[in-house]
Structure formats: C-alpha cells, structure tokens
Amino acid sequence: MNRGVSNEEPADALALRALAWTLSDPDRAGRLLSLTGLDPDDLRARLTDSAVLAACLQFLEAHEPDLVACAQSLDVRPEALVRARHQLESL
Fold it and tell me: Is 57 helix (H, G, I), strand (E, B) or coil?
C-alpha cells in the first residue's frame, strides 16, 4: 500500500473506497466509464494501477458535489481525496 502522511489511510486504499462509492450509483458509474474511456473489464483488470486510481479520483474532483458527497460518505475531508490523487500520480 502507498502510505502518504503517516496518520492517513494509504492513497490506494482510499482511492479504492472512493471508486466503490462512485460505482455504487449507476449514472455516476456510467459517467466515470464514459469520461475515462475505461470499460468494466478494463477497470476490473487495472484496479491496482495507480494511474487508473488517480483517474477515478480526478473524475470526482471534476464535479465538486460528487467529491464532497464521496468524502462525507467515506468520513474523510475532500482534501484527503485530492492528496491521494497527487500521491498516486507521483508513483
């Protein structure tokens, strides 16, 4: 796992939880797949790919209401999701 600041959840674990939240709504899941160009099989095959996880977080950042709702659901600050994306992009 990719740990950022020592007291934070690893970036990849947080991104996976955010991805699960994103996919829990069919409309949002469809938008994610459409905007990222991924298909369901590709997404499943690349769940551990830091670039894919970063793209999923970037998808949330692009629509602030989703970013905020996801953060609230995961009980983290929106900034933690943004930080996780930056960490995943630097790998």
Answer: helix
Provide CB contacts within 8 A for 47, sequence distance 6+: 16, 19, 53
Distance CA 3, CA 43 (A): 23
Q: What is the pLDDT along the chain (91 residues), one digit of tens a residue?
A: 444 444 679 999 999 999 999 999 999 999 999 999 999 999 999 999 999 999 999 999 999 999 999 999 999 999 999 999 999 999 8
End-to-end C-alpha distance for the chain, whole angstroms: 12
Helix (H, G, I), strand (E, B) or coil at 89: helix
Cβ pair 21, 73 in contact under 8 A: yes
Give the CA diameter of the chain. 35
